[in-house]
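Researcher: Can you fold this with flavin-adenine dinucleotide in place?
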Amino acid sequence: MNEVAARQDADNRTDVDVAVIGAGFAGLYALHKLRNDLGLSVQAFEQGSDIGGTWYWNQYPGARSDTEVTAYCYSFDRDLFDQWRWSQRYPRQPEILSYLAMFADRYDLRRSIAFDTTVLSATFNEQTSRWELQTDTGDRWTAQFLVEGVGLLSSTNLPAFPGQDRFAGEIYHTSRWPHHPVDFHGKRVGVIGTGSSGVQVITEVAPEASHLTVFQRTPQYIVPAQHGPLDPGLLARIDAHYDEYWRGVLDSITAFGFDESDVPAATASEEEREAVFERQWNSGGGFQFMFATFNDIGTSREANNAATAFIRRKISQIVSDPETAARLTPHDLYAKRPICCDGYYETFNRENVSLVDIKASPIVQFTERGIRTEDAEYDLDVVIFATGFDAVTGNYLKIDHRGRRGLRLRDKWSHRPRTHLGLMTAGFPNLFMIFGPMGPFTNQPPAHEAQVNWIADVVRSVRERGMNAIEPTQDAEDQWIQACDQIAYSTLFPETNSWINGANIPGKPITVMFYMAGMGSYMGQLRDAANGGYADFLFDKQPVGA
Ligand SMILES: Cc1cc2nc3c(=O)[nH]c(=O)nc-3n(C[C@H](O)[C@H](O)[C@H](O)COP(=O)(O)OP(=O)(O)OC[C@H]3O[C@@H](n4cnc5c(N)ncnc54)[C@H](O)[C@@H]3O)c2cc1C
């Protein structure tokens, strides 16, 4: 469809139908859908110098997806799926970035993206029913609809330790990695953090560094990924049943594309459980270990204990030094976003790798030569922060959003984030958040597509009804939050501390931030909202005060 052109207004602002923030998986698809399919004038903004989002920023050694790639891609374009040939089950960062670059070129997206441009503020003008945007380049834009794909895991958590400036060596953060190779040969490297990025970078850098010191706050349950070439049989099956495959993805709990178990662990004998866990350990995958083995690992303490006991035994079998094995062994529940990585525990059998428990002996400061903990000093040439993200809400709250009557999003969300369907929040009309708080806890690209398609239908509906704006009712939002809480508290996830509930960032409210009932159920909620004529939403015809 031919797109509408942007317009210049009397105040020298550029007016478009839709502003999109972010040029990762989500933002790129939103731009394509709204500009190329709906024919709207769309302008996208991206802080980075190029497209890719996560895969632009996280160029650290070892970075790769942990969703099998047949489900970590766009599904709407069958030709694209057929033409693009992935090399591995879990591709590395450069391959995913190339895929997204190809996608941007295929749909001619770059010309609508302002790179190196951060959106600082977004203010809803009730007189005009338009969002007014201010960027760090000084440009001013207005848009009727604001669609934000600012990333669930994108706002970098960079702790500042005393003395950091004095450190004479190099400092990197996994999610702000330089776009040139970093040489670790002959260097003493320290990695702070053992989350998903931490374990990937640790495993990759260990063979290169002269010595690697891992500063671990919380041990993790890590199962092998079993990386390897893509199974041609799987590709052939998807090829023969393409629509069915994607329907299955959207109908599942995790949207990862594997067969989820419908067997409760309690119905299996101890030997059977052991055999199931062993089989999964050998075929790989973190989400697979949690959801393909039994259907109640995340909800039943007994099932969870069986899974953790199995992984703990593996750690003690793999790691030869009993003290190191003990430090690597978690004792909490297996109820965080599951991590997978090949060779992680084996890495601690290397002579050039040592593990420091910074819960027992916290980091006190950086010195000129390295890091000092409460009971020792470590000389280092390079420090890598793998300290993760201010997840889910971080980037939304960095933008100074002001909704109706000047309501600030930061104030509205000061105790906890609030949305309806993880997509919209009352008092902020025409603002859509892709993977906003209280969205599904799933593999992301298929969920991005589903959410953007839903947003496009809403935009169409607003226009067809001759309305100006839409927002959820307060009631709908309250009920959604209540449902998210009820579902989350029927699982074990709120019982552990992690980025999933905000516990990794000091001072951040610790709260439920996901709809944990699974992708299939979430799709049902999206369908119900649309089929019910958006009864839970308020449509505005006349701009207030016009
Ligand atoms: C190493 C790693 C591996 C991962 N593996 C998986 C996986 O296997 N499966 C999975 O489902 N998920 C995975 N994730 C999560 C991953 O973030 C998502 O899969 C997906 O890439 C998110 O896409 P997105 O477009 O929503 O956000 P992002 O890719 O994070 O893009 C958001 C973009 O918005 C930009 N932005 C933010 N705020 C502003 C602003 N104010 N102005 C302008 N631009 C702004 C950012 O610069 C960023 O480029 C992984 C994450 C990491 C870090």
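Model: Folded with flavin-adenine dinucleotide in place. The chain has a mean pLDDT of 96.
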